[in-house]
Amino acid sequence: MSNLPVSNQQAFSPRMIGMKLLPTLIYAAIVPYLIYLVATGSIHLSEVNALLLAAITPVFGVLIELMRKRRLSLIGSFTLVGIAVKLLSALLFNDARLVLISHSLMIGVFGLLMLGSVLIGKPVLLVLIKSGFGDMSQEQRAQLERSFQSSGAHRRFLLLTTIWGMALLLMLVVCVILTYTLPIAQVILLRPVIDYGIIAALIAGSLAFRHVLIARKRQQNAH
Question: Where do transmembrane segments lie in this chain (predicted)?
Fold first, then answer.
């Protein structure tokens, strides 16, 4: 990853990640929380219906992305699948807490998928990183591909994918504990903060790991 173009390295800086995550966090936590309070308090919807109404809000972000880029990112597709899972769980179980957990179950499944990809030697994290560079030029894509060809890079992605997979499973465990110990309104507000906090920590840790490797490589080249 040290051979990324300068513009893309800047896009993955901690400051840029924070600037991108903060609006997403506000949108994912505060807006659904307010919708849930209004739906249950003023409109008198059931908890399940109020949760489904609050869950629809991310669709607008996905639609904006679709109109701007003419395609859906992996995260956008994952968001739509998550909403579909919530709708299905509401129809099957009609239980507000199971609706809350349903999205985290997807995260847990994805964590297991990451760990499984490590076992077969094809880290999913590498695929995700490549999918995030759809707007790159052909030359930049080729440069990126070359940087991923070395055996050392492959081992690093295996390690990072393992860490990410375990962290996603941790997110599922935390969600289950919160869902069954706190009021639903508090879970709606707190869970995105925890989820995005873990994701931000994972990204920051991955970046720090990359910088350490770059520093070691420069020291080796200097000798």
Answer: 21-43, 49-67, 74-93, 105-129, 157-181, 193-213
